[in-house]
Write a structure and sequence with these properties.
Number of helices of chain A: 13
CATH class of the largest domain in chain A: Mainly Alpha
Largest sheet of chain B: none
Oligomer: heterodimer
Strand content of chain B: under 5%
Largest sheet of chain A: 2 strands, antiparallel
Distance between the termini of chain B: 35 Å
Number of domains of chain A: 2
CATH class of the largest domain in chain B: Mainly Alpha
Number of strands of chain B: 0
Order of helices and strands of chain B: HHHHHHHHHHHHH
Structural class of chain B: mainly alpha
Number of strands of chain A: 2
Helix content of chain A: over 70%
Helix content of chain B: over 70%
Radius of gyration of chain A: 26 Å
Strand order of the largest sheet of chain A: 1-2
CATH architecture of the largest domain in chain B: Orthogonal Bundle
CATH topology of the largest domain in chain B: MetI-like fold
Distance between the termini of chain A: 58 Å
Order of helices and strands of chain A: HHHEEHHHHHHHHHH
CATH superfamily of the largest domain in chain A: MetI-like
CATH superfamily of the largest domain in chain B: MetI-like
Chain lengths: ~325, ~325
């Protein structure tokens, strides 16, 4: 140890150290830069996409996303209208949501309220693993296993029974493609994929509800189900709604699995038993081979729509979940 | 137990109905859970059986053969995934950790709120849109597809995942540690890097593992950034570079500058081809991918819960 030798640093070095507060100025600057860059990144993404879609926006205006404009997606004539793919995104996500919500809330209730402690950890693991499976793997399994074994028989049954219904008839018009590539297939795969997301967030919402709420309800003689249904669910409703909207955002943005099972065509009418496109799948399928600047620009505009929709949904979901957390902390 | 009581006492019908609704609905939630887990088991078992059947050593050490011929492997995809995940980690980890430090040292400033909100939004942006964005800023400027562009796209996916988990983990570090360091006269950065970071290191690492698992499985952001490349072989590039007496930097540039393949990208391309050999390889790729991603996930979560228990959370 040479503590006895005191070397004096040059004056300018001392001054510099003092000015930098021994490096803290620099450190704080780095922290600020990193933080600001995260915010800037989101804005940059928005601006860049907006900018790149200018060609298509000027050419087609609002008719591009209008449900009533005549639909056409013709790279040869440079005529583009995005409604069929927007419709595909909406219908698949809504069906997925309708199917996934009861499941996810049930699972959340089981995991938060009922699961015996021994089972809780492994069950939580499994639900989270379901969310971790890469979406291409879902897609591969979808094409070769899920479509032929589940979707085709189900689609045929739906076409046979529902095709004549007065209101839903148009949605269930057959024939179902032999391969099973259809909006129905995409919707069912999406159901499997978003269930763990909604379930995990709803479970956390339920777990955040104070014990006193349960105890008060049980003490009044309510059964466990009545406690859950009439006390806990209303208490956490906005949080669970947030989880559902988060799931909707994921369903709309999900790309690979959907691209692999939806059949990728701009035709297909309104029926869920026919193949179609979603906003994400049309970009995935066509962008690398975009034939003209207008085609690329139109696809980027679809990306802008996708971006805006998911942004709004996420902001709404976060706000809802956050409002529950605030409520629980307040009590 | 409860049933016996109800059998002895003749309770009004409404009570029995309530009890029935209770057991039916509670049973239903359990049933839903079982139904939800079926796909997981179905996928995992099916991929293991199918993929296990077609996987062999060639698969890991050879480049693809021409279409329609059997044999060959997906070395290019393994190397491409590896290179791009490394690029992504190098780009994403430092700023993510710095932002997380900012969030824990100044948790209530307007900027912190903005960062948290942006992180959530970033995590919610569909990965295909991230792909479009990176295409617009990197591929258009470079005028060609590259492993670098793919890596940058993946880094954008990893960034919010790491920020969130790192913030959580740094928040768990007891205040006294940081305050003690500061009270002893250590500058802020030393307290952060030498005291807080080691204390939270395991948790942060698990977060990074999860983000790597996520990035490895992503296809959409690579579709028009890395594009795919059947001949992406680092060994060849290095050998050629050495033969031509290129510098290390030039060889590295080569590796970053070429279009690259990745495991999920290969899986996507092979899955839709009419050649049965390719589809078989797609199953093998799915197996490798699934095992890698699930193992990382299980390890990370296991480690995390173990650590949490140690901290007495």
């Amino acid at each position: 140890m040479n503590t006895t030798i005191v070397t004096k640093r040059p004056r300018w070095q001392q001054q510099l150290r003092y000015k930098l507060q021994h490096g803290d100025r620099l450190w704080k600057l780095l922290l600020l830069l990193a933080s600001i860059s995260v915010v800037v990144l989101v804005l940059w993404i928005a601006w860049r996409l907006w900018d790149q879609s200018a060609l298509s926006r000027h050419q087609f205006g609002w008719a591009f996303i209008s449900p009533w404009a005549p639909s056409s997606w013709n790279p040869a004539l440079d005529k583009f209208q995005a409604w069929p793919s927007i419709y595909g995104s909406l219908i698949t996500s809504i069906i997925a949501l309708l199917l996934a919500v009861p499941f996810s809330v049930g699972i959340a209730i089981f995991l938060a309220e009922l699961a015996p402690p021994v089972l809780r950890a492994p069950l939580n693991y499994m639900v989270e693993m379901l969310a971790a499976v890469p979406s291409v793997v879902y897609g591969l399994w979808g094409i070769y296993v899920f479509l032929p074994l589940v979707v085709v028989p189900l689609g045929n049954a739906l076409a046979a029974t529902g095709g004549q219904l007065p209101l839903l008839g148009g949605l269930l018009k057959g024939p179902m493609p032999v391969s099973g590539l259809s909006r129905l297939g995409a919707a069912l795969i999406l159901t499997i994929m978003i269930t763990p997301t909604i379930a995990a967030v709803s479970r956390d919402v339920l777990l955040a509800i104070p014990r006193s709420q349960r105890e008060a309800s049980l003490a009044l003689g309510a059964t466990q189900w009545e406690t859950i249904w009439q006390v806990l669910i209303p208490y956490g409703l906005s949080g669970i709604l947030g989880a559902v909207i988060l799931g909707l955002g994921r369903a709309i943005g999900e790309t690979m699995a959907v691209t692999m099972v939806i059949g990728n065509t701009t035709g297909g009418g309104n029926s869920i038993l026919r193949p179609g496109y979603t906003m994400a799948s049309i970009i995935a399928n066509e962008f690398a081979e975009a034939v003209s600047d207008m085609h690329a620009s139109a696809l980027i505009e679809v990306g802008v729509v996708l971006f805006v929709v998911t942004l709004l949904l996420n902001a709404l979901a976060r706000w809802l979940v956050w409002s529950v957390n605030r409520k629980t902390m307040g009590s | 137990m409860q049933k016996d009581i109800f059998a002895q006492v003749d309770l009004p019908r409404v009570y029995r109905r309530r009890q029935l609704v209770n057991s039916v609905m509670l049973g239903l939630t359990g049933l839903f859970l079982v139904l939800a887990i079926i796909p997981l088991i179905w996928i995992t078992v099916y991929v293991i059986i199918k993929g296990g059947h077609y996987i062999n050593l060639d698969f890991f050490i050879h480049l693809p053969r021409p279409m329609g011929t059997s044999g060959g492997g997906v070395l290019q995809a393994i190397e491409g995934s590896f290179v791009m995940v490394i690029i992504a980690s190098v780009i994403a980890i430092p700023p993510a950790l710095l932002a997380a430090f900012y969030l824990v040292t100044a948790p209530n400033t307007p900027l912190a709120t903005a960062v948290r909100f942006s992180t959530d939004l970033l995590a919610g942006i569909p990965s295909i849109v991230i792909g479009l964005f990176i295409y617009a800023i990197v591929v258009v400027t470079q005028k060609h597809y590259s492993a670098l562009a793919g890596g940058i796209a993946l880094s954008t996916i990893m960034l919010p995942v790491i920020i969130r988990s790192a913030e959580e983990m740094l928040k768990l570090v007891p205040r006294e540690l940081r305050e003690g360091a500061l009270a002893l006269g250590s500058p802020e950065w030393k307290a952060a890097l030498r005291v807080m970071l080691p204390a939270a290191a395991e948790g942060i690492l698990t977060g990074i593992m999860l983000s790597i698992a996520r990035a490895t499985g992503e296809t959409a952001p690579l579709l028009f950034t890395a594009l795919g490349n059947d001949n992406y072989e680092i060994g060849n590039m290095i050998r050629q570079g050495v033969r031509h007496h290129q510098s290390v930097l030039a060889i590295l540039g080569q590796i970053l500058d070429q279009p690259a393949d990745a495991l999920p990208l290969t899986l996507w391309k092979y899955a839709q081809q009419p050649y049965p050999e390719r589809v078989q390889q797609a199953w093998a790729v799915a197996l490798v991918l699934l095992l890698f991603v699930l193992t990382l996930n299980i390890l990370a979560r296991f480690w995390l819960s173990h650590r949490r228990r140690q901290l007495g959370e």
